[in-house]
Amino acid sequence: MFSSRLTSFITTYNEPSDVLERTIIGGTDIRYPRLQIFVLDDGARNWVRQLCELHEIGYLARSDKEHAKAGNINHALLARARHPIPRPLVPYLTPISFPMRTSSSGR
Fold first, then answer.
1. The CATH classification of domain 6-93, taken from the options 3.30.420.40, 3.40.50.1100, 2.30.33.40, 3.40.50.800
2. Fewest CB within a 10 Å sphere: which of 40, 67, 69, 105?
3. CA 94 from centroid of its chain's CA atoms
4. Where in the chain are the domains?
5. Computed from CA positions of residues 35, 36, 41, 45, in that sequence, does the dihedral angle turn out positive or negative?
6. DSSP secondary structure letter of residue 89
7. What's the pTM?
8. What is the pLDDT along the chain (107 residues), one digit of tens a residue?
9. In 3-state terms, what secondary structure has residue 27?
């Protein structure tokens, strides 16, 4: 049924932790067998890295802030293009995209 690998990016710069966590939880609720989720952190914040580890998703930060969100996405696309297993479909989510789930069952 599903054949393509899928990477989903959640872009963030300065959102509060509760907003970002709701978005991560919503993203992890997507049911797709070959889905890998990454938070793209333009703020290079340690608490965001820890939040990603908690939810068992990927984390990417970049050293420069050129071109704002588009630069953040381009950086991630280049980083993922170097991965040995390409994932051609790349949607992205922005924080505040999903309502809060009441339980964390399933993941």
1. 3.40.50.1100
2. 105
3. 9
4. 6-93
5. positive
6. B
7. 0.75
8. 556 778 888 998 888 999 999 999 998 988 888 888 999 998 889 999 999 999 999 999 988 878 888 888 888 888 877 777 665 555 555 665 445 554 554 44
9. helix
